[in-house]
């Protein structure tokens, strides 16, 4: 490309855009340090008067952050682990094993990606509420709160991911059959072939899929909100910070909320910055976000 | 959803049988049945999940969309035919206007803003150094929870917030962005576009990289200026990526409502109410599961039509080349 002159116009556009992208984050951080009477007043000031951490302490106490954090970690860990495991197992079967019905199941997996998530909020919620023999329900799903009493409800609808299976299968197809065949001749069962040969070879894809799943699960809002309304004990970070806003010290609501938000997005931001190569590849592959 | 239809993956989707026919012949001695049993063991968790969390819910939602139900006893679901659907479109119903109109405006506005911004930025990043660094910056909103994005922007839109602070500093009056029915929807659209520009930049950058350098060299030899090059070479050759970004963002826009819940809850009035949010409210605020499920299926049909159009466009494009 022509790079003779200094691309001042390009710099202008990219820097302006970058400032517009970063400023809301900076405003969030600055507000999180503002004292009572310092935020939401006229005229607007960008910088706080002092950088003290009292809002962060208040967020941890008043927003119940430790509990929210624990719930988020549990839900995210269960979802990520399950998606990785089931995607790898199913992907291996679809890529490398021959069995009747393989094409049909592969098409089924592809077709699951056609259904938009909003279609499932209602039936998933009702299915969990009326889950037989759980949370005080009888055999016909009547009388109790069903699975919504349990923290597993947060993870249930996300345990398997059609895109994950598709992704793993696409990568496993390129593993040479000769390698697997050699292991089978040496007496390895299919499970050993999968665990000792296929899993190690697909580690980079696993990192990509794991990261995508982790970020999605950590940031998930609507489903967690539904489950939390039925059972406030399982509130996750996004839900808790949104719902508990009304209960914090009203003279400095926004600074406390912003402090909570900063703490809640830190884990994902750090993980993204460390492993962004994998994450960006995942977004390219899914093209979705 | 749509991700399987990405241009770079379509080809592989259509050849699921690419593996192992020769190996298979050599392996006849090994009992095939055992491999089938193992395969179904490996697939068991997945198939079980899809039965309980895909097939069953779809059937249940379809049943609900044609029933009236208080939500307690599964034995008391009352079939009412297509009443829930006709109720949505009856005179005086808010579903068609403003809700469905809002949904389309929200999706179209997001696409228009995000596409313009990302084309401009992607094209400019391509001419700079430290491209990775810039893209990382633009990507920050993608990994940030909608609750953080929504609250920060809601706060920035307030009278004492950053946006009005800038307006006041420029000598302009304050605007009640989210409280005024005329500005509420555009204000939310800006945030949704802001949050999705990073992905669009990523996909467009990949598209830009695939344009052969020789085209630009030829244009330079002919003395074409940067604006001519952009309109005559970059944009036409970027068309597949542009189309892809356009349709995926449009589909996302049709379905998104988390940001709206956080920022306006659909208000003021119905000014920012969209179809997916209406479905959510009918179900979880009013307990009207039938109407909610019907609304969900209407939106699903809209989404499905757009998806099929996308599929058709990319199939046709594949045959051309």
From TrEMBL, chain A:
Its localization reads:
Cell membrane
- How does the protein's chain sit in the membrane according to the entry? Multi-pass membrane protein
> Could you tell me which residue ranges the ABC transmembrane type-1 domain spans?
69-275
Q: GO CC annotation: what is one? A: plasma membrane
Q: Which UniProt keywords apply?
A: Cell membrane, Membrane, Transmembrane, Transmembrane helix, Transport
Q: What is its main location?
A: membrane
- Note the Pfam families from the entry: BPD_transp_1 (PF00528)
Instruction: Name the Gene Ontology biological process terms.
Output: transmembrane transport
Cite the PANTHER family for this sequence: ABC TRANSPORTER PERMEASE PROTEIN MG189-RELATED, ABC TRANSPORTER PERMEASE PROTEIN MG189-RELATED-RELATED
Name the chain's protein: Bicyclomycin resistance protein
Native source organism of the sequence: Streptomyces olivochromogenes
From TrEMBL, chain B:
Which key words are in the record? Cell membrane, Membrane, Transmembrane, Transmembrane helix, Transport
Q: Where is this region: Disordered?
A: 1-29
Query: What membrane topology does the annotation report for this chain?
Result: Multi-pass membrane protein
Q: Where in the cell is it found?
A: Cell membrane
* Bilayer-crossing regions: 37-64, 104-125, 137-157, 184-208, 242-263, 294-314
What are the recorded Gene Ontology BP terms? transmembrane transport
Domain of life from the UniProt record = Bacteria
The record's section on Pfam families has: BPD_transp_1 (PF00528)
Q: What's a single GO CC term here?
A: plasma membrane
Report the residue ranges that make up the ABC transmembrane type-1 domain in this protein.
Answer: 100-310
Q: What is its main location?
A: membrane
Is S-adenosyl-L-methionine among this UniProt entry's keywords?
no
Is Iron there in the keyword field?
A: no
Q: Per the similarity annotation, which family is this?
A: Belongs to the binding-protein-dependent transport system permease family.
Protein's name according to its UniProt entry: Sugar ABC transporter permease
């Amino acid at each position: 490309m022509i790079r003779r002159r200094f691309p001042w116009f390009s710099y202008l556009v990219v820097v302006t855009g970058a400032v517009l992208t970063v400023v809301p984050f900076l405003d969030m951080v600055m507000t999180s340090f503002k004292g009572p009477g310092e935020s939401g007043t006229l005229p607007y000031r960008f910088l706080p008067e002092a950088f003290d951490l009292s809002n962060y302490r208040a967020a941890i106490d008043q927003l119940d952050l430790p509990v929210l954090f624990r719930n988020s970690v549990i839900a995210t860990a269960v979802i990520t682990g399950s998606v990785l495991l089931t995607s790898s197992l199913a992907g291996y079967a679809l890529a490398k094993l021959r069995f009747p019905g393989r094409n049909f199941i592969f098409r089924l997996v592809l077709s699951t990606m056609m259904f938009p998530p909003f279609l499932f909020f209602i039936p998933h919620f009702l299915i969990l509420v009326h889950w037989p023999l759980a949370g005080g329900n009888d055999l016909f799903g009547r009388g109790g709160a069903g699975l919504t009493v349990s923290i597993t409800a947060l993870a249930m609808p996300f345990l398997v991911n059609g895109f994950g299976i598709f992704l793993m299968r696409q990568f496993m197809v390129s593993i040479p059959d000769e390698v697997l065949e050699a292991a089978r001749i040496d007496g390895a069962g299919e499970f050993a072939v999968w665990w000792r040969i296929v899993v190690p070879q697909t580690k980079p894809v696993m990192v990509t899929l794991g990261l995508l799943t982790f970020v999605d699960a950590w940031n998930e809002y609507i489903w967690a909100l539904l489950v939390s309304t039925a059972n406030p004990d399982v509130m996750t970070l996004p839900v808790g910070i949104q719902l508990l806003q009304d209960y914090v010290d009203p003279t400095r609501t926004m600074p406390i909320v912003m402090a909570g938000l900063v703490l809640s997005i830190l884990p994902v931001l750090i993980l993204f910055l460390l492993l962004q190569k994998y994450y960006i590849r995942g977004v390219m592959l899914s093209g979705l976000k | 959803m749509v991700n399987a239809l990405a241009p770079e993956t379509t080809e592989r989707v259509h050849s699921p049988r690419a593996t192992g026919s020769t190996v298979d012949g050599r392996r006849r001695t090994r009992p095939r049945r055992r491999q089938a049993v193992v395969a179904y063991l490996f697939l068991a968790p997945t198939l079980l999940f899809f039965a309980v969390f895909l097939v069953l819910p779809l059937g249940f939602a379809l049943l609900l969309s044609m029933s009236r139900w208080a939500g307690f006893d599964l034995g008391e679901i009352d079939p009412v035919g297509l009443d829930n659907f006709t109720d949505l479109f009856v005179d005086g119903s808010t579903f068609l206007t403003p809700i469905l109109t809002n949904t389309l405006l929200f999706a179209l506005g997001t696409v228009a803003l995000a596409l313009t911004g990302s084309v401009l930025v992607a094209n400019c990043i391509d001419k700079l150094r430290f491209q990775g660094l810039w893209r990382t910056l633009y990507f920050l909103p993608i990994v940030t929870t909608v609750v953080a994005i929504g609250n920060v922007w809601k706060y920035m839109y307030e009278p004492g917030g950053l946006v009005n602070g800038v307006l006041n500093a420029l000598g302009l009056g304050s605007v009640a962005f989210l409280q005024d029915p005329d500005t509420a929807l555009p204000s939310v659209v800006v945030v949704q576009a802001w949050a999705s520009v990073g992905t669009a930049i990523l996909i467009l950058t990949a598209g830009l990289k695939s344009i052969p350098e020789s085209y630009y060299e030829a244009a330079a030899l002919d003395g074409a200026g940067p604006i001519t090059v952009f309109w005559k070479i970059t944009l036409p050759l970027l068309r597949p990526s542009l189309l892809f970004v356009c349709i995926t963002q449009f589909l996302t826009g049709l379905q998104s409502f988390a940001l709206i819940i956080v920022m306006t809850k659909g208000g003021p009035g119905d000014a920012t109410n969209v179809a997916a949010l209406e479905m959510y409210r009918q179900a979880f605020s009013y307990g009207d599961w039938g109407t909610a499920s019907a609304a969900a299926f209407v939106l699903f049909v809209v989404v499905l039509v757009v998806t099929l159009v996308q599929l058709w466009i990319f199939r046709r494009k594949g045959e051309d080349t």
